[in-house]
Amino acid sequence: MAVRNARPPFHPFTAGISRRRFLRGTAGAGLAVAAAGTAVATSGCARVDLTDEPGGGTLLKRLRDRGSVRVGFANEAPYSFLDKNADLTGEAAELAKVIFERLGVPKVDPVPADFGALIAGLRSGLFDIIGAGMSVTPKRCEAVAFTDPEFNASEAFLVPRGNPKGLKTMADAAASGATVGVLLGAVEADIAEKSGVPDGKIVRFADQPSAFDGVAGGRVDAVALTSISLRWGLKQRSGLNLEVTPPYRPIVDGQEFLAAAGAFAVRPDQTGFVEAFNRELHVLRDSGELLRIQQPFGFTKDDVPAPDLTAEKVCQG
Amino acid sequence: MTSGQLRLLLEGALNTIYLTLGGTGIMLVLALVAGIARTHGNRPVRFLAGCYIEVFRGLPVLVLAFWFVFALPALGWQLAPLWAGMLALGLNMGAYAAEVVRGAIQAVPPGQTEAGIALNLSRWQRIRYVEVPQAYVAMLPPLGNNLIELLKASAAVSIVSIPDLTFNGQLIRMSSGETTLVFTGLLFGYAVIALVLTALMRLLERRAVRSLGRVPEPGMLRRMLRRAEATA
User: Fold this and answer.
1) How many domains does chain A have?
2) Could you tell me the CATH number of the domain that includes residue A290?
3) What is the ipTM of this complex?
4) B11-65 tens-digit pLDDT
5) Residues of A with Cβ-Cβ distance to B70 under 8 angstroms
6) Which of A256, A274, A306 is the last residue of a domain?
7) How far is CA A80 from the centre of its chain?
8) B5, closest residue in chain A (CA to CA)
9) Which residues form the Solute-binding protein family 3/N-terminal domain (chain A) (predicted)?
10) For an interface test with B, which of A75, A207, A297 has the most B Cβ atoms less than 10 Å from its Cβ?
């Protein structure tokens, strides 16, 4: 075998390293990189069974055995977010800590995710429960099982201090001819339209900060949003000379309009878990502890859901 | 910036480095296999390699990562997001790099292959001892390019809940509102990682050039040493 003995021609600058040794070395380095990558990740590949469990599911038992629960959240203040110390806090997060403690699951592991990826992440098993103050909507009800709402957001207006137009409800806004700012795609545009605010008096803003600037700069007379978001937003920008009007419940077509009823969500087959969770949630709500947990995040007694507001009811739209 | 936020950023940087290294490992293996297969005499082999390259070069790495994290579990397998990210990056960049490998091998003068045949080397021996060692030098600089590209693409796959540098930076931005500080920090973070990778690739390139018996330009370290000697 001529090749076995073939050596690269000696060259003063190759410093005596044969090409073969050099190649072997670099190939080895490449393999080492690949191996390191695999070692990091070997723990991360596993068989999962995402078929529906019969009889209400075993989620609660599995969580109790593990002693921890992975809560998916979207880093949205004041519902679930990381505080200045990068610790999980917020209305839904604090509530989750209390309820899971009572359910016999001592540890809550936060799993941050994009809001749009929350339901997909839950369904593919990245976390056990969504705890992001997610609004219950009929469409989402098809994909996940919601617990009963943990809050039912009341509506309010952000107005210049002193509320010069005297706005209390959307009907007032329609009657006084005030210009109302809403967020793009938010339910408040619906409420305004159905309450008789003409389209020319509705100004749509891309995000909350620009809506706040809109009132502060006099572009609109008021911004309509849930009172929770308004109070929290104003707390972050206390320099503005604005105030939040007292919360109200919008009436549309003679019925109370649900702006945002937020709840936890699990995979659709885990109805047994939902029952257990609801039991603890109802106890907290009836004892007033729910409000005590949520109060630091700008929630008021007007945001506590009524006892007859169940997930089922909201799902029906 | 608090210690908790700093910890979050450092963890993110570590995950970005994991993503880059793991993705690079997969990329190199795939690129070598597919690149060499592309120059194979056997038509089905060439075709298969071509299929891999065309399919995975055309798939956005973001969609791949999404599929691995959110669609694969429906088939009964679950990948940790970090692992899924590496795989998506490796598969995607591997397709690009395979073309680099193919190009470099085809750029080896045909006389070299003919000489190998004249020496009665088998095909595998020709690849191993004649073609790849020479092609290696030519493929290193563009592979370095792909490496940096992969590092940056890792920022995109963070959307599948991989807590990498970008993802954790966003978390901090949202909770602290310090947009300028956070994104400036991210810029520097990626720049530092990229610079280290570039330096390593330079080192490899110089070694490769030397392996062909050429003399590389003196590097920064040697230039500094020489200057120090001259002034001493």
Assistant:
1) 2
2) 3.40.190.10
3) 0.72
4) 999 999 999 999 999 999 999 999 999 998 899 999 999 999 999 999 999 999 9
5) 117, 120-121, 123-124
6) A256
7) 6
8) A86
9) 68-301
10) A75
